[in-house]
Amino acid sequence: MGIKAGDGIKADEVMNSQGLQFKNFAQLLFNAKHIGYNSKLNVATGSPNLKNILYHVNDNDANTIYNFIWDNTNKYYYMPDMSSSNIFYVIIEATSISSTADFSINGCICVQLAANKWLLYCTAGANYEENRARVYKTLFYGTDGSNPRASSTYITNCTALKTCHANDVGKRGHYAQMTCYMAAVNYNNGDHSYIGVFANTTDNYNCQAWSYIYGYTGASSGSAYAYLPSDTTINSISISGSSATSDETQTNTSLEKRNNPADVKLRLVGSSNSNFTTSFTLRIFLVAKGGITWTLYPNWILGPTSGTTLSASSTDFYVNNSIPEFTMAGTLAEEGANSATLIWNATASSTITNSITTWNSSIAPNDTLTVSVSYDGGNTYTQVSDATIARATPTGTDLRVKFQVTRTSLSNQDKIGEHATCYNWY
Questions:
Q1: Helix residue ranges per DSSP H, 76-145
Q2: How far is CA 235 from the centre of its chain?
Q3: d(CA 189, CA 195)
Q4: What residues form DSSP beta bridges with 387?
Q5: What phi and psi values does residue 42 have, to the nearest 5 degrees?
Q6: Residue 155's pLDDT band (boundaries 50, 70, 90)?
Q7: pLDDT for position 9
Q8: Is the distance from CB of 388 to CB of 19 less than 8 angstroms?
Q9: pLDDT, tens only, 251-293
Q10: Which residues on adjacent β-strands are paired with residue 215?
Q11: What is the pLDDT of residue 186?
Q12: Which domains does the chain show, CATH number per domain?
């Protein structure tokens, strides 16, 4: 109700009229921050002389980010579209991860859903199986086999790893590699294998692998293979005076699933002499029930000469990296993918008793945005309306401004833009 002549002035009406002015002023502040403050502003400090204002414009500076992604081009936070029928995802529950950016590789996206809970998913592949490969590659291979994210470098105290793929429940990640370099010295010739024997051959159904093979030889012929089991080729190259790569780490290998395979194998065949070198790199990662015991079987027909190397190594992510075996994830909605939160923090020099908050947002019809403030460090929140006076209790000096969105569809990309909160108006 407006203030009319002769009426007693109500405090809320006065403060809300101030809120309207603040909202309009804030748009100018936001725009100035977007285009950049003049270097001469405020005795050439280049920063505005503001008082009792917490504001966000064009930096990824929220202190808490749940299920929002920062668009650095358009300068807003948005909820990612997770509606694809081909989406594949894993839930990571842990004390912490290094960063969501570290897991956003191989076309995957990682967002934090809640405290100690992250969603790693992919829709970049042509189909569900390619997306599954990319997510497992991120966890058990990384970018080149040397930096899998399922390790203490990237995850601290992983307590659960949940998959949306029912066939993978009870399985764990495995990785193995074999490399060989044959020096340009007369003569090297070998046929070497790295064989892994499965501990579980009774209920290791739908065992699946993804592999990478590279080879180079200066003149003679050579070849390299990945097998699952050891008598069935799943990837290979053949070279002669050239190099070749066969990268199936992001490939749909679902037609190569095996029930209760006895073993898995990497093999290379090649030679070198005084005029040329030969080198091979073979890598494989897979999900399987139980452990795998790996053994290197060198077979030098000639050599090895000085400077020639052959090596192999493996990782059981459950045994070596303390990564749990897969359990079943809920639906995306059940795991919390329809909710999102942003929180900004600020410390005031005096006790906050009142505030006005204004913001820019784009929320889909039927979705809900709730904005609230806290003066006691987030222990107690009070819901606020745009450009309207709020008097949260209890009072305090530890300001929090929280935006919470609940969407009705996984396709809705609700956005939070600029906002400002001015406190202690009186």
A1: 100-103, 128-140
A2: 28
A3: 20
A4: none
A5: 55, 65
A6: very high
A7: 52
A8: yes
A9: 999 999 999 999 999 999 998 887 889 999 999 999 999 999 9
A10: 244, 280
A11: 74
A12: 11-65+340-423 (2.60.120), 75-170+327-335 (no CATH), 172-315 (no CATH)
